[in-house]
Design a protein that fits this description.
- By secondary structure, this protein is of the alpha+beta class.
- It has a domain of 88 residues.
- The protein is 20% helix and 22% strand.
- The chain is built from 3 helices and 7 strands; from the N terminus they run βααβββββαβ.
- A 3-stranded antiparallel sheet has the order 1-5-2, with no helix packed on it. A two-stranded antiparallel ribbon has the order 3-4.
- Strand 3 and strand 4 form a beta hairpin.
- It is flat and about 50 Å long.
- 9% of the residues are buried.
């Protein structure tokens, strides 16, 4: 499995941690307990053993109110081998592309960049680990 996309953690929940560590954190457990009445028997863990292809501290989102990492490519090393990782452009590179001299004035989206998310790209190949 390869899972890509935006992981927005609300209420200070570490959803990324839940994905990669296979278990819910305490703050998430409190939210789950509240939903237990609505969804009895909800599963609180998984066995997917996901790994992030990029360092979690990479900048993937730049707006006037937020800068940080919101986007991930998660994969199962049991089934996929990570071949190459292409880092998103730095804030300095984005500033240069859009013609802004002061990096502090970079905000996305804008005329040159239609999204507030920077691209994450990884190359994978199917793993032979489980083949007989």
């Amino acid at each position: 499995m390869i899972l890509t996309g935006l992981v927005v953690s609300f209420f200070d929940l570490n959803l990324f941690g839940i994905y990669v560590q296979s278990a819910a954190y305490q703050s998430f457990l409190e939210l789950i307990d509240a939903t237990e009445k609505i969804l009895p028997g909800i599963r609180r863990e998984h066995k997917l053993q996901l790994r992030n292809s990029h360092p979690a501290e990479e900048l993937t989102n730049i707006t006037t109110c937020f800068e940080g990492c919101l986007d991930y490519i998660l994969y199962q090393p049991e089934h996929f081998e990570l071949i190459n990782v292409y880092s998103p452009p730095s804030k300095a590179t984005v500033a240069s592309i859009i013609g802004v001299e002061d990096e502090k004035k970079v905000s996305l989206p804008n005329f040159h960049t239609p999204s507030d998310h920077l691209p994450l790209i990884s190359d994978f190949r199917f793993s032979n680990k489980n083949c007989s």
